C-alpha cells in the first residue's frame, strides 16, 4: 500500500518474480499431500498404514526434489544469472546505450556506502542470532499462559501474532525500500523468507526426520493448506502484469485480515 501511495504505478522486473514462481511450486507440493490424504480418507482404500506409508513416500520424494530445486535457484540467483539481479544492468537496458552513463552515474549517487565491513557484519549477525534464539525460547514458552489468560486461540498466536513480531525487521525494510521505489528489492525481501521456509526448511526437516527415524511428512491440515494456497494464488494474480499500485496492496491486506479472522474463530 505504501508503495502505491508514493508512486502511481511501479514496474516489477519479471526476473525478480522467479523466486515467487518457486514459491508457487512449493505451494503445489504442499497441496498434493493434503489432496492425497483427503482422497485416501474418502475412498478408504486399504488399511490406514498403507495410506500413511504412501504419504511418507510422497513427502520424502518431494522433499528431495524441492531441496534440489532450491539449490538450483540459489545457483541461478548468485552465479549463473547473477547479472539479472544487477540494478545497473536493467537501467542500461531501459535507458538504452545513449543514456547508459547517465543512468549509471545517477545510480552511483543514490547508492549508499556500507557502514560495516564483512567481519563486523558477520559477528553482529552471530550475536543477534544467539540473542534471538534465547528470546524465541521464552516467547514460545509463554504462548500457553498467554492463550489461557487472554483467551486467544493458540493457532492465532502461532500463525498471526508471532510472524508479525518475528518478521518485524523484514516488514520495516520492505516498506522502506518501497518508499524508495526499489520494487525488485521489496519483492525479494517479501518472498525471501517464505521461500526459505517452504522450499528449504520444511523439506529439510522431512529429510532430517527420515534420517533420525521420525516420520515427518509434508501433510498439513486442510484448512491451513487452503489458506496458504489462496494467498499464493492472489499474489500471483496481482503481480502477473509486472506492475503494482496501492489498490493491489489493499487487496492483499484484506485477504490477510480475512485469514486472521478465520484463525481467530478456528
Automatic annotation (TrEMBL):
GO cellular component terms, A-Z: endomembrane system; fungal-type vacuole membrane
Primary residence: membrane
Family indicated by similarity: Belongs to the Ca(2+):cation antiporter (CaCA) (TC 2.A.19) family.
Subcellular location: Endomembrane system; Vacuole membrane
Annotated GO biological process: intracellular calcium ion homeostasis
Spans annotated as Disordered: 92-113
Function of the protein: Has a role in promoting intracellular calcium ion sequestration via the exchange of calcium ions for hydrogen ions across the vacuolar membrane. Involved also in manganese ion homeostasis via its uptake into the vacuole.
Annotated protein name in UniProt: Vacuolar calcium ion transporter
Membrane topology (UniProt): Multi-pass membrane protein
Provenance organism: Candolleomyces aberdarensis
Keyword Amino-acid biosynthesis in annotation: no
Membrane-spanning parts: 12-36, 57-78, 121-143, 155-179, 185-211, 218-239, 245-265
Domain Sodium/calcium exchanger membrane region intervals: 121-264
Pfam families cross-referenced by the UniProt entry: Na_Ca_ex
Molecular function GO terms recorded: calcium:proton antiporter activity
Alphabetical keyword list: Antiport, Calcium, Calcium transport, Ion transport, Membrane, Transmembrane, Transmembrane helix, Transport, Vacuole
Amino acid at each position: 500500500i505504501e508503495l502505491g501511495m508514493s508512486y502511481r504505478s511501479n514496474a516489477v522486473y519479471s526476473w525478480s518474480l522467479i523466486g515467487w514462481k518457486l514459491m508457487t511450486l512449493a505451494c503445489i507440493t504442499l497441496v498434493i499431500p493434503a489432496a492425497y490424504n483427503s482422497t485416501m480418507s474418502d475412498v478408504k482404500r486399504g488399511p490406514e498404514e498403507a495410506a500413511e506409508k504412501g504419504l511418507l513416500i510422497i513427502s520424502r520424494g518431494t522433499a528431495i526434489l524441492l531441496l534440489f530445486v532450491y539449490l538450483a535457484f540459489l545457483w541461478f540467483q548468485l552465479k549463473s544469472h547473477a547479472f539479472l539481479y544487477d540494478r545497473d544492468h536493467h537501467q542500461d537496458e531501459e535507458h538504452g546505450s545513449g543514456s547508459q552513463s547517465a543512468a549509471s552515474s545517477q545510480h552511483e549517487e543514490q547508492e549508499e556506502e556500507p557502514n560495516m565491513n564483512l567481519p563486523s557484519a558477520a559477528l553482529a549477525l552471530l550475536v543477534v542470532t544467539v540473542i534471538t534464539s534465547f528470546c524465541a525460547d521464552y516467547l514460545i514458552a509463554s504462548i500457553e499462559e498467554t492463550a489461557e489468560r487472554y483467551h486467544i486461540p493458540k493457532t492465532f498466536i502461532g500463525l498471526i501474532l508471532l510472524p508479525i513480531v518475528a518478521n518485524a525487521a523484514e516488514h520495516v525494510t520492505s516498506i522502506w525500500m518501497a518508499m524508495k521505489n526499489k520494487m525488485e528489492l521489496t519483492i525479494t525481501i517479501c518472498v525471501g523468507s517464505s521461500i526459505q521456509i517452504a522450499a528449504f526448511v520444511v523439506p529439510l526437516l522431512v529429510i532430517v526426520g527420515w534420517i533420525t527415524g521420525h516420520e515427518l511428512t509434508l501433510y498439513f491440515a486442510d484448512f491451513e493448506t487452503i489458506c496458504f494456497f489462496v494467498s499464493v494464488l492472489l499474489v500471483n494474480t496481482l503481480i502477473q502484469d509486472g506492475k503494482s499500485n496501492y489498490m493491489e496492496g489493499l487487496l492483499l491486506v484484506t485477504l490477510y485480515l480475512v485469514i486472521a479472522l478465520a484463525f481467530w474463530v478456528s
